[in-house]
Fold this sequence. Notes:
There is one protein chain. With 369 residues, this protein is mainly α. It is built from 15 helices and no strands. The chain has helices at residues 4-20, 29-34, 41-50, 56-59, 73-88, 92-100, 102-123, 126-130, 146-174, 182-198, 219-246, 258-283, 294-317, 323-340, 345-365. α3 packs across α9 (146-174) and α6 (92-100) crosses α7. It has two domains: 4-86, no CATH class; 90-362, no CATH class. The protein is elongated, with a radius of gyration of 22 Å. The longest helix is centred in the middle third of the chain and has 29 residues, at 146-174. The model has no long low-confidence stretch (mean pLDDT 86). It binds iron/sulfur cluster (SF4) (2 copies). Residues 16-17, 20-23, 57, 60-63, 71, 73 line the site of one iron/sulfur cluster.
Amino acid sequence: xxxxxxxxxxxxxxxxxxxxxxxxxxxxxxxxxxxxxxxxxxxxxxxxxxxxxxxxxxxxxxxxxxxxxxxxxxxxxxxxxxxxxxxxxxxxxxxxxxxxxxxxxxxxxxxxxxxxxxxxxxxxxxxxxxxxxxxxxxxxxxxxxxxxxxxxxxxxxxxxxxxxxxxxxxxxxxxxxxxxxxxxxxxxxxxxxxxxxxxxxxxxxxxxxxxxxxxxxxxxxxxxxxxxxxxxxxxxxxxxxxxxxxxxxxxxxxxxxxxxxxxxxxxxxxxxxxxxxxxxxxxxxxxxxxxxxxxxxxxxxxxxxxxxxxxxxxxxxxxxxxxxxxxxxxxxxxxxxxxxxxxxxxxxxxxxxxxxxxxxxxxxxxxxx
Length: 369
Ligand code: SF4
Ligand code: SF4
């Protein structure tokens, strides 16, 4: 659960908004807010995840600072999301490390894992690590054994999914009473899936979001699309490679093969998305942002960009003596990405999908009307 101070500030802000209602056409948060007269802790978190941080209600608000009400809804919601996701994530030691200094934790973890792989590869002799390996099936495993390459990534990915899943169940229970019949739940899930796949809410009704300042722009939505679909293509590439290996064709594969084409498109899209989002975060007016939000966001975007760039470099350099080193660095980035996912903006993506589903259910049930 987020801290009592953050919850109290969110409750105070929403009570003012619920009386004002000037922003009711801005996003899904305001209609969901208007269905309620009071806000439980779980409902506050639900509304926070429904917010896509367009910052429109900050630049439009007559009660924003320097008004004595000091209302900054996007910042309060960002703090709620940050604290809620992190508090549910396990283990707490990694959570504390990431909260204290996200960038150092992310890069340090990726570097440490890469060094472990490099040292392991050195056991097979310097020739295995620094030699030139012809690009042929199984040549990656001459540097790092298959079991060491596949198992840690698989186990850390499953552990991250379980950690996020347990948090999501807890979050869903806190949202309120069940509202669904199976038919209504399916219809609402399809509506939420449509919202997720099109990132419709980031369009702000066509004019976009206040990405940097009062001016409207659709840049953030486009960059999110690059990042989101790049990530999905990465999952597709990994799945295709896994199927190939089950059929007895170990990695690496020719450039014009399905796993490599999907992986290359994924790396390029994620690099554009993560790089652009890094720039947006640094250029944006910090007033409506949570003070503790920038460091973990930069860390996760930096790690996504590093994973994408190291994957592309591995492809480009796989016929050279740098292949072993690039393979270790890429694995380090990917493992660190999965290990830190439960504490980061990546987990928020799944919480947001759950909030959109909940919102579609409420709208169909006509809750509170
Ligand atoms: S953010 Fe400000 S203007 Fe918008 S509904 Fe709330 S109080 Fe009113
Ligand atoms: S920041 Fe945007 S999405 Fe979030 S509550 Fe305000 S208007 Fe809605």
